Amino acid sequence: MAGVNRQTAWVILVLFLTTTVLAGCTRSGSQLGETDSGSDKDGGGEQITLRLTAWGAPDEVEPYKIAIKKFESDHPNIKVQLQHIAADYDTKLTTMVAGNDVPDVAMMESGSIAYPLAEQGKFYNLQDFLTDDPDLNAESLVPNITYSLEEGNIIGIAPGPETFGLFYNEDAFKEAGVEPPPSDAKDAWTWEEFVEVAKKLTLDNQGRNAADPNFDPKNIKQYGVNLASWWASYSNFVYSNGGDFISEDGKTFALNQPEAVEALQNLADLVNVHHVAPSPVQSKNIPATHVALQTKKVAMAIEGQWVSSSLAKSNFNFNVGVLPVMKKPVTTVVCAMFSMFKSTEHPEESWELMKALIDPESSIDMLTAGTWMPAERDWYTDQALLDRWTKDQAARPSGYQGAVIDMLLENSHPTPTGYVKNFNKIMDVVTPALDKVWLGQQSAQEALDGVAQKAQAQVQGRRD
After folding, report:
1. How far is 220 from 207, CA to CA, in rounded Å?
2. 147: three-class secondary structure by DSSP
3. Phi and psi at residue 15, in whole multiples of 5°?
4. What's the pLDDT score for residue 289?
5. pLDDT tens, 303-347?
6. 295: exposed, middle or buried (C-beta count within 10 Å: 0-12, 13-18, 19+)?
7. Cα separations (Å) of 312 from 129, 217, 371?
8. Can you spell out the DSSP letters for 277-319?
9. For the whole model, what pTM was predicted?
């Protein structure tokens, strides 16, 4: 009897271990809500909830809701709780993290909250997921939409890029008898050509353009060009001229170096020397870009491609050309990111959620409207996919392919917020100094040399 009992016990032990191993092998599939047997659709899988935080206007949040609905349908055992934080996002999320009330996936802004949290070790390295995923990898994404704490440690992926172009009113060009800006980078205007065109399109209240010796710069009814004075806008020209915010070795403040200074001075001269662009004071009387172009308050605007959406609704003949070139064609990519907190109990499921949020299918309405651009490269290179968001769309005029898409793929530059450490602190010093440049109170060299020491004290290196 003792021998029989030992044999029976051994059989039971083997069956137990076999069952345990099989359960362990199938757990990840169950967690991801796979439905090979259909049992998960009946609620048989482990039920989990993922929390997602995001900001944005209601129409910008809608694609996330669409993505979540599809994700939950594909993964019936997973529910996604979307927490839309419409205002003071960084402050509220920081408070949540401090109180251990942390979402699984969160939208992040690279210039403010993302890197401080990453330096505290709060985020997963998404490179590991990209390396192992059969459907999404670094090569399948468009350039400059991943953010890294250091090489090989990706802390965030954007749902899509944003670039800059030269948007314009076609009728204003026809009335001035001037050829519109080219859309191909190889044909881009030089800076000097751009200034001359801007002069012809700048009109005083008597209809004289800025090239006329009798032009009245104090009574302008149509400016040749308008551009914002924030860092992302002027970065296009700093990079185009071979400059940067920080030296290549990461040790030195670089905006007071010759290449950057020349670019910034050229921009200021549009206002104070050539009188073809409004000053910051005059800009207060200039309406939003789509209205300003429609009403011919301005003939051209250096803007992010996101303005395509409002332009398409404004019912006038607009188009987009490639930015003017100082030394080489460049457009800066700016975008928010999605990051995954290490505190999540469900990293694999959170990664699948991130993929769903990045998937252009979920945001197709925003793509066709002109608000967004896709994150995945094949939506630019596969003609059938490209046509889905660009063909016969009012938000995608004839110049869009060359001036926006081709520039993104071939001539884009990463945002400085992604590679300049302590970027916001540096800009806290720089921005007030540049305000004096835009107002014509100081030259770019004088203003930036004047704050170089304070800016240098904030330099902490590069991440690239």
Report:
1. 9
2. strand
3. -60, -40
4. 96
5. 999 999 999 999 999 999 999 999 999 999 999 999 999 999 999
6. middle
7. 38, 31, 10
8. S--HHHHTTS--HHHHHHTTSEEEEEEEGGGHHHHHTS-S-EE
9. 0.88
